[in-house]
Amino acid sequence: MDPAVNPAVNPAVNPALLLLADSRLPAGGHAHSGGVEQAVTSGAVHDVPSLAGFLRGRLHTAGTVAAALTAAACACAAGPPPPEPAWGLLDAEVDARTAAPAQREASRTQGRLLLRVARRVWPSPVLEGLARAVPNPHHPIALGAAAHAAGATPEEAAMAAAYHAVGGAATAAVRLLGLDPVAVHGLLAGLAPDLAAVAGAARSGGDWESLPAHSSPALDLLAEQHARADVRLFIS
Amino acid sequence: MPGRRAMRAGAAVATAPAPGGGTLVHRLASAPPLTLRQTGPSTVHLVSTAAGPLGGDRLSLDIDVAPHTTLELGSVAAGLVLPGHGTSEFLVTARVGAGARLRFAPEPTVLAAGCEHRLLVRLALAADAEVLWREEIVLGRHGERAGRCHARFDATRDGRPLLRQEFTVGDPALDSSPAVYGAARCVGTTFLTTPVKEPVVAEGVAVLPLAGPGTLVSALAADAVELRSRLEWGERAVRPA
């Protein structure tokens, strides 16, 4: 059988993408709610429909930025030129797009943990180079570099980033509000076209300065209010 | 404004050091509908001399603040963005030199129903330039659904990215998302080069220390008056009077 048409030899979905997007990847993602915890505290998210609005907004703002920067990091890791001198510049582009300090901290915490895991799961000189250049990279940088080390393309890396932007938040809402987990997974399934659009728009070429920079003012407020809350189940 | 033709206009303002110190506004180029008037030794106001912008209009404003000079730029009235033929665009480019100071605080931009607007800001700062840059967007006139808008703000300091932000308005499902604007009808930010140590939060407003040297005051509000008071509260937290 022609390997090109044999799905067992040439699968349509890259298994690396599944591993990267899997919440069971032990990179600490479960400890972050992506702003959902504070949105629940404030009452802005209180049921399945309000969670749907939250997730869509998160995907088309923070998720779009993360997907684009992740694709850029994956392409950067693939080179040429050698990526190491560029990591700091790309990391600074994430900084400039993340105004809220609580979100920068959450992103760097998750990036550091993911990089640590990825260096053991997919050992590669690119990941060692990133760890040398930026020991605590922003999550999109770590995810893009890890995706490259795992054999994924920038487009696949962008998909993992877009899914990461809503998957963790959705699970957190289930735990915080006791929502029906099947209904919430239905929401995620309903977002499939949006995920595809966001990942598809994340071009990996071109200059970094013009990459998306969508702001989500409500998320910024939620993140800083959350950092000041007395009782928290999630880190962010 | 039936029958009005799309306008292409570029206005500019530039400062120079005055002999003996201080600031001289040495270039003031108006282009209707963008008219600039000097209202003080280093103060200039944007005066609209036509309605709009309307769809199809391409307007630009270039601001050059020479090293060690000061410029304050305001506007006399809110800018009402109206529908027309195609997208309207307002591009603002500003360069602020070493030791120079710029305060950019125009009245809000109101996105009337049906408008299609693009607002682009490119701010290039010297390392020790001092800036306050306020932007306020009102999502539609009273009781009206906002038109569409894409706003992008890029600030660099010595060529390094300091703040990049985009706002999109016009998809009702996204605009009302509790992650984006929620129930707010007005969104605003003030970017300041003055750093703060700690973030500060109050109802509808956050004072956010950026990763680089600067601060962003970010606010959401039900109306323009509340938005202005929240932004000013945040600005005072950065620069106590």
TrEMBL record, chain A:
Function field: Required for maturation of urease via the functional incorporation of the urease nickel metallocenter.
Upper classification of the source organism reads: Bacteria, Bacillati, Actinomycetota, Actinomycetes, Streptosporangiales
Q: Which family does it belong to?
A: Belongs to the UreF family.
Residues crossing the lipid bilayer are: none
Write out the GO MF terms.
Answer: nickel cation binding
Protein name, as recorded: Urease accessory protein UreF
What are the subcellular locations of this protein? Cytoplasm
Query: Which superkingdom heads the taxonomic lineage of this protein's source?
Result: Bacteria
Stored Gene3D superfamilies:
Urease accessory protein UreF
What GO terms fall under cellular component here? cytoplasm
Q: Which UniProt keywords apply?
A: Chaperone, Cytoplasm, Nickel insertion
Assembly, in brief, is:
UreD, UreF and UreG form a complex that acts as a GTP-hydrolysis-dependent molecular chaperone, activating the urease apoprotein by helping to assemble the nickel containing metallocenter of UreC. The UreE protein probably delivers the nickel.
> One Pfam family, short name please?
UreF
* InterPro entries (alphabetical): UreF, UreF_sf
